[in-house]
Amino acid sequence: MPDLDKRSHWENLHQSFRQKINGVYLLSNGSGSNPLRRYNRTTGTVQTLIRGARRRRVRLRAVGSGWSFSPVAATDGFLLNTKQLTLPFSVKKTVTRKGSPAGLFLFQCGMTISAIGRYLRKKRRSLKTTGASNGQTLAGAVSTGTHGAALDFGSMQDFVVAIHLATGQARSVWLERASYPVVKASLAKKLDADLVRDDALFDAALVGFGSFGVTLGLLVATAPRFLLETHRLRQPLNDDLMEAMNTQSFTGLDLPRPGVRPHHFELLINPHDLGGDTEAMVTVMYKQPYRDDYDRPALGEDDVGLGDDALAFLSRFFDLLPFGASGPVIRRVVTSILASQYKAFAAQLGTQAEVFAATSSRGKLASSGIAVPAERTSDALDLLLRTHKRYGPFPGAIGMRFVKGTRATLGFTRYPQTCVLELDGVYGDRARRFYGKLWPAFERSDIPHTYHWGKLHRLTPRRVANMYGNAVEDWIAARKSLLGTATREVFSSPFLESIGLTR
Amino acid sequence: MVTSASTPHADEGEHRAPSSRRGKRWLYWVGGYVVALALSWGLSFFLPSWHYGVRAWEGSGVITQRESKHVFLWGSIGGPVHVSSEQEGKYRCESNALHEVRVNTNLGHALVAALTLGIWAPAEIEWQCAAPEEDGGDLG
Question: With a cut of 0.85, is the ipTM above it?
Answer without folding.
Answer: no
